[in-house]
């Protein structure tokens, strides 16, 4: 399924609007843990970790070498589809630094290169269970 940028932007804004609306005590998202499309992948770290299967994951890491820092993000959905990208853009590395075990990630990519990394922290995200 190919989702164009404006449709994705509308969905992201809708999600932000829903999250900014009056909160409901204890409300959590139980939607798909990891979604992979041709130009982005998204999901909740906690929901992927807590999924009933042992297949799904999503996450990013920052690594340093003698030539500088880079970020690597990857995900696998319930169907076993895998997506991954890397970047050495400082702003994307900073975004990953804000990530924690309860973050929701939305990562744009093409040709193995990350184009954007959105990190969302919210009580709406399903936390990681022990």
Describe the protein in words:
This protein has a domain at 31-120. The protein starts with a helix and ends in a 10-residue tail after the last strand. The protein has helices spanning 5-20, 45-50, 90-97; strands at 34-36, 40-44, 57-65, 68-76, 82-87, 104-110, 113-120. By secondary structure, the chain is of the alpha+beta class. Residues 16-28 have low confidence and may be disordered. It is globular and about 40 Å long. It contains 3 helices and 7 strands, in the order αββαβββαββ. The strands form 2 sheets. It has a 4-stranded antiparallel beta sheet with strand order 1-2-6-7.
Quickly list its features.
130 residues, alpha+beta, 7 strands, three-stranded antiparallel sheet, four-stranded antiparallel sheet, single chain, 23% helix, 3 helices
List the helices and strands and how they pair.
Elements: H1 5-20, E1 34-36, E2 40-44, H2 45-50, E3 57-65, E4 68-76, E5 82-87, H3 90-97, E6 104-110, E7 113-120
Write down how many β-strands occur, each being a DSSP E stretch of 2 or more residues. 7
Largest sheet: 4 strands, antiparallel
Treating each run of at least 4 consecutive H or I residues as one helix, how many helices? 3
Distance between the termini: 34 Å
Shape: globular
Overall average residue pLDDT: 81
Order of helices and strands: HEEHEEEHEE
Give the class from helix and strand content and strand pairing: alpha+beta
Q: What proportion of the residues form beta strands (DSSP E)? A: 35-45%
- Residue runs with pLDDT of under 50 for 5 or more positions: 16-28
Strand order of the largest sheet: 1-2-6-7
**Helix percentage range:** 10-25%
Cα Rg = 15 Å
């Amino acid at each position: 399924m190919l989702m164009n940028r404006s449709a994705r932007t509308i969905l992201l804004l809708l999600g932000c609007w829903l999250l900014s609306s009056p909160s409901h005590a204890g409300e959590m998202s139980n939607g798909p843990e990891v979604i992979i499309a041709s130009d982005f992948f998204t999901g909740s770290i906690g929901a992927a970790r807590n999924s009933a299967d042992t297949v799904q994951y999503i996450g990013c890491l920052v690594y340093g070498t003698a030539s500088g820092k880079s970020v690597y993000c990857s995900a696998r959905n319930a169907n076993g589809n895998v997506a991954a990208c890397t970047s050495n853009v400082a702003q994307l590395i900073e975004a990953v630094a804000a990530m924690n075990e309860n973050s929701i990630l939305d990562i744009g990519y093409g040709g193995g290169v990350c184009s954007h990394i959105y990190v969302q922290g919210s009580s709406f995200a399903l936390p990681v269970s022990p």
